[in-house]
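note to self: the first set is below, dont mix up w the second
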Amino acid sequence: MTGWTRVGVVGVLLAAGPAAADGNVKAGAEFARRHCAGCHAIAGSGPSPNPSAPPFRGITRNWPAEAVAEALAEGIRIGHNAKPMIDLELSIEEIADLVAYIGQVQR
């Protein structure tokens, strides 16, 4: 994803504000199961398989949804000890879906 495309994705999500939470929760859950569950606890309880990976249920307590969306748009490339986080380029829809799912896990 080019820098301008990332800026565009972030701009769309930030402009959407709460509308970004209108992503498809079921699609976000499926994305999380396929790409995130190997390290993160993606449900409302239980530990993360990788102790260094924050559980989804606490992510938007620590970071606003807009910051999560921005990080996803820019491609999270942080590491958890010796294991780097996967390097994905998500579409606007995938980001909205994942943020919607993460928001639902908080409830």
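second set (the one i keep forgetting abt)
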Amino acid sequence: MNSSPIIQLLVLAGIAIFLILRLKNVLGTRDGFEPPREAQPGMARRGGPDLEVIEGGPDADILDHVAADSEAAKALGAMKAVEPDFNVTEFLQGARGAYEMILMGFENGDMASILPFLSEEVYEAFSQVVDSREQQGLTVESTFVGVREMVLQDASFDSAGREAELVVRFVGELTHVVRDRGGDIVEGDETKIKRQKDVWTFARVMGTDDPNWRLVATGE
């Protein structure tokens, strides 16, 4: 009987056992639950006031909109610390839609549709203008064209009340004419696009079940 194949198998088995022992020593073993590694220096949870993300780099969602060393950046970081799901870019996307909805609701005198998105003070100010137009027999015809420019201008956060305020500058484009009781145009030109500049402040208490931001101040 030729014993050469048996010897070869024994040699290969010995080599395999040697390699397994070496790998076990190098990699170690895992048995059951392994606790997570502790964070290394310079690493922080995404959304903390220090603007660090888990990878150790800056939070691009904040720094894409405000300067790194600004008070606005610190305020945005504090908002994320209270509400980790808060996203600045997503807020601005929502603000773009809110700008069109609120602006056109005001232009058309449809205050009921935008009431949930306005503070009491802003609602009263808008309503006074709408009521004045009606008393004078004036009607507004507007068509929203789009937002030409939108910039997050400032941010602040009251840690005691957890109230956040975000100031957004808009440059909107729309057609706008005002007609008198007889239907004659007394303001604007229906063939021209009007460029309108607005600085709006939105506010919300972070960490609550109410996701809606409300317009609390307007300016130019």
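remember for set 2: The chain has one domain: 60-219.
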